[in-house]
Specification:
This protein is of the alpha+beta class and 114 residues long. 23% of the residues lie in helices and 41% in strands.
């Protein structure tokens, strides 16, 4: 039957000093889900376990993101996290420190209703 997307939220996060791509991605995901409230689960008697959550995070070095650690932080549903090339690295010319900026798209799906 397939799934139907019912929400998509976007977020941004950064790590200013540690060049930690997972930390920046986690903050981007938190930023996205912090803006969401989905009252339809209670209103319709749906179980959160039926929800599939698909997260895509964009960073300049996707291979440095611990996607399993990010999945463990998601509060609801059956989650997957994929890291792709995106985001932004900004280097301070005075210190050489690189600021890591991540973007995230958090999508939620439910089985298609007939």
């Amino acid at each position: 039957m397939g799934d139907q997307r019912f929400i998509i939220e976007m977020g941004m996060g950064n790590d200013q000093y540690g060049q930690d791509y997972t930390k920046a991605a986690a903050r981007a995901i938190e930023d996205a889900i912090r803006h969401s409230s989905i009252p339809m689960f209670d209103a319709l008697g749906l179980d959160h376990a039926e929800m599939r959550v698909q997260v895509t995070v964009g960073v300049q070095e996707p291979d440095k993101v611990d996607c399993d650690a990010l999945v463990a932080k998601l509060p609801r549903g059956q989650a997957t996290v994929t890291a792709v090339h995106g985001g932004l690295n900004v280097t301070n010319p005075d210190s050489g420190n690189t600021l890591v900026i991540a973007s995230a798209a958090v999508e939620a799906f439910l089985p298609k209703q007939v």
